[in-house]
Input
Amino acid sequence: MTERHTTWLITGASSGIGRSLALEALNAGFRVIGTTRNVSQAETNCAEFSSRGGTWLELDPAVPDAYHQIAKVAQKENIDVLVNNAGYAFIGSVEVVSEEDVHAQMEVNFYGPLRTVQACLPAMRARGSGQIILISSGAGFIARPARGVYSVSKFAIEAIHESLAQEVRSFEIKVLIVEPGAFRTTFATNSQARTDS
Output
């Protein structure tokens, strides 16, 4: 009987913290599936991921079909560790933010992680084990000027994960919320801003 390796699914694995986590998990001998919105670009920007045995999955967390894509992977690959990392920051004052800006932010930072959790949970629950890690932010507990919309998304997704931790404890599924500080990544350059009135 062949030994089954622990399998990680990391969203937003092509840059920043997601990329670093993916490469470290591969170095530790785990199987890693990394999601990215553009596989060809990810292969160019992070060639070592594939060369070390990682598998890319093209996925846009902002689309409702992401749930079905992840559910198929979860059933086939037996995900042990889910890392909800994909996200971006919308920057703009409350006065100028549009409803479309809020919806777009929530689709990626709230509904995206919620979809992946719901897609992975049935297999974890049936197996009686699993780990779910949310890469959040200090914005998940304090809102700063021009960061209100971003904070809304982080407050909300942290609340879901806090509730989830209590719901799945009896199934030996662990939930961890990580609120890192600033790192030298492309996160800031990937932020979206609105300054017009």
The chain has a mean pLDDT of 90. The first strand starts at residue 7 and ends at 10. The domain at 7-194 is CATH 3.40.50.720 (Rossmann fold). The CA atoms of residues 112 and 176 lie 17 Å apart.
